[in-house]
Amino acid sequence: MKVFKFGGASVKDAAGVRNVAKILECYKEEKILVIVSAMGKTTNMLEKVAEAFYHKNADVAEQIKPIREYHLAIMNELFSNKNHPVFDTINNVFAELEWATDGEQTKSYDFEYDQIVSIGEVIATRIVSAYLNETGLQNLWLDARDYISTDDTWRNAAVNWELTEKNVQQNLVPLFKEGKTKLAITQGFIGVTSENYTTTLGREGSDFTAAIFAYSLSAKDVTIWKDVPGVLNADPKWFDDTVLLNKISYRDAIELAWFGTSVIHPKTIQPLQNKNIPLYVKSFIEPEKTGTVVSNTENPQQIPSFIYRMNQVLISIMSKDFSFIVEKNLMEIFKSFSEAGIKINIMQNTAISFSASVDDDKYKIPTLISALQKDFKVAYNSGLELITIRHYDQQTIERVTINTEVLLELKSRKTVQLLVKNLG
Ligand code: ASP
Ligand code: MG
Hints:
six-stranded antiparallel β-sheet; 2 domains; 13 helices; VC0802-like; binds aspartic acid; Carbamate kinase; 424 residues; alpha/beta; eight-stranded mixed β-sheet
């Protein structure tokens, strides 16, 4: 079994959906589970519906309208027969959305968010599946919520691996084994609680879904189809001489993803590594090209990779009375970060201070600072950049620090991280 994942950018319009069909046509002989995300910017639009419904800051119907029009336009291009049942199917999904956003909100915002925002993936897979069937690529539409079992941490649900693997083995594997299908289409990003409520796995979580299914199926490999040729050693936004990494190790991939390479979602690697399943990152624009393979490789390339995280804030915390910052205060400090929902990108401590760089956030950071100020002196410095270089050497460090002031530097054998203020 193979697992393919097509993200929102690959199905953002009718031409994109046709292109997906063209790619799948080349793999007709294989058994494939295809994970599809919401089309284009649908998730962002649905987030507005959730806000309008919960916070009443806008008219819900007004927010739903462009989403319906967007999908209808794509369907009108794909299906010449206006009586095709997919039109009814999608109408029903929108009726459910209207129904879900009609009465009063029941639980928390995060709960309502998951019930609403998950619909983007349902719509996308319904359209893609129907189109593929129409063009001769017979497939089954599967509801990911019949397989991916999670807890009820809304918007960032944790997977119940055991139950998910059991669901997949008992109910999904037989569909392929008994020859019912060679091709199945399902949603990324969504799961279900034991009480049958929909959950989501965190923004951009469809890569992770591909890894969950691959793990549970013990798949042969996973391919993430992207609008870039594979994993590059730097973002072409900052570098004009980027290099494609043909072959990288799981270790490099997880580090690069964690530090902020946006090509692969960081959670994707672990399940694949655990079962030694190779991950291909390939271009849906040039599908014949080899792209990148992430695997348990013996000789990974040692090409320096550069990752930039912009809009960093350096928060410096000092004891008020010149006492040491030791384990006990560090516990308090980490607790404050965790409660504020802030992820630390780089940190350092000295006798009486602790510094951490985090992504800027105009709501979370003031809350954190006022919490910390109860026990500590707090200073902060914003507008910084965090540069991570994997497989660095002195020359690469010099290259990225021209015209900058380095505020913090952290080196391990393979990785250097530099928090800098750009003076240019
Ligand atoms: N549609 C979801 C999002 O945009 C999940 C994904 O694209 O991976 O965040
Ligand atoms: Mg997306």
